Prior knowledge:
About 20% of the residues lie in helices and about 25% in strands. With about 220 residues, the protein is of the alpha+beta class.
Amino acid sequence: MHAALLLETGLPLRQDFYNRDPVVVARDLLGKLLVRRTRDGLCSGRIVETEAYLARNDEACHASRGKTRRNAAMFGPPGRAYVYRIHRVFCVNVVTEPEDTASAVLIRAIEPLAGVDLMKRRAGKAVLHHVCRGPGLLCRALAIDPKLDGWDLTQGRRLWIAAGDGDECEIITSPRIGVGAAKELPLRFFVSGHACVSGRKTYRAPTATARLPKRPPKKDGKSR
DNA sequence: ACGGGGATCGGCT
DNA sequence: GCCGATCCCCGTA
């Protein structure tokens, strides 16, 4: 990497960062910098929304029914990209845990920082907090497509993730967006109150009746 | 700003 | 054939 690029973006996260539980990686990814470099220029943004997809007991995970041509990158080493197409758009994940575990973290939204005009043009959006709000939009804005499927994110070329400014932020957890299976699992993480987050910005609790304890409430009103 | 419904096509059964 | 880890548009507020 060029020194100027390091000053601007920091070093790419190493493989150790990704070689952990996807829930830990998903939370830790918030605030980090997603960086994309093409001939057209450098674009980057602060990650503000992620979702974890587990290797076991998670029917929504693409790897839950075994290895296929599409999801092969998920079975690769940690720190690789898994890029796939759905509903006519692309989504980008980072592979977590050791090779052949097949877990990943979906990057759902970023706050545009560098290369804003280029990203606006590619995404066809004028309002800043609309440019990368959603996994398909951020891939469009950063020119991420399946040619980057399996790309090594630890090399600091073309596409990588670097440490951000280290600012603390409040993290909210919720069920994942748009998944049919395992829709109750609280595996979505986002920065509280951030305008660039897609979907619901508050945690909608499951219906109260479904969560009520089977034991009747105490008469005296005391609890815990 | 938020929520509902339709478009649309590749991957998989 | 079926079904989406989505987006966009169009209601309503």
